Amino acid sequence: MPRVAFIGLGRMGRGMAGRYIEAGFDVAVWNRSKAKAEELTALGARWASSPADAATDVDAVVTMVADDEASRLVWLGPNGAAAMMKPGTLAIECSTVSYDHALLLSRDLNGRGAIYIDCPVTGLPDAAASGKLTLLVGADAVALDRARPFLAPIGSTIRHFGPVGSGTVYKLINNLMGAIQIAGLAEGLAIAEQAGLDMKLVLEAVQSGVTASPQVLRHAPRMIARDFADATFTTALRHKDAAYALQLAEQLLREPPLVTRAAVEAYAYATAEMPDDDEGRMIELISQPKA
Ligand code: NAP
User: Fold this and answer.
1) Is 51 in the pocket of ligand 1 (CB under 6 A)?
2) C-alpha distances in Å from residue 146, one per residue of 27, 55, 101
């Protein structure tokens, strides 16, 4: 039975870890807050006392945590997974981290004999729970082939962009473009609201117009109805992704990335007010009449 350590049981990680149990893997789990592991341990996962404990004697370690800092801690911290991984263990980082962090982590873990796979994902928590994520992989081809049995339970599509780090580059541009669309939609709808337009009509027009991307189609009705009951992606996570994309843009582009900077600023503003709320709730801050 393949053995996997799964670390990080937030909105996404809980469902992903559950997929390994359903697929018959021997699963050890760890999360900073233990309560989130209860459902999985009831299904047969072993609770590990630390990431290092989870990584003991497994074939692959998979992580799904918030950001660079959390990723650094669970892999390389004092009780991090790296401390106990044996040479040849697959190290699969699914969290959205910065490009620099992905490269640093791969160098460190490969230096210890692990096989690092850059594997951020797209898809919401329901896709995570049903194994339908799209996996954005950066890895050499041999490492990817070795990892495939460990990717199959969590993803229905693998997009292999190239060497380690390339999956993260794509993930960051994907979420940057999403940030720009959502923040732009919030400001557009706020202007329409404050101008007194019939928002039912505005919604119909948006849904059938040329700017109706999947992001816009998802968020427009929720923003207009102020219905954020099914929060799946928080303002703080969107800000983090846009900020990581900005770092990369500033390293790569000759011209200043003005729109990227604006998106980071919009999400910094929203995150200061509502970090753990749905990313679309920023409209409540923006749609206020001018004093
Ligand atoms: P979440 O529900 O906020 O979960 C975050 C996870 O990170 C939790 O397990 C949390 O532990 C852990 N964590 C945070 N800080 C930590 C620290 N300092 N040390 C150890 N663990 C720490 O987030 P999520 O929505 O599952 O997202 C997880 C990752 O997937 C993020 O990188 C996100 O950008 C990416 N992502 C999310 C979605 C989505 O739709 N939500 C889609 C694609 C990709 P606690 O439980 O103890 O807080």
Assistant:
1) no
2) 18, 18, 23
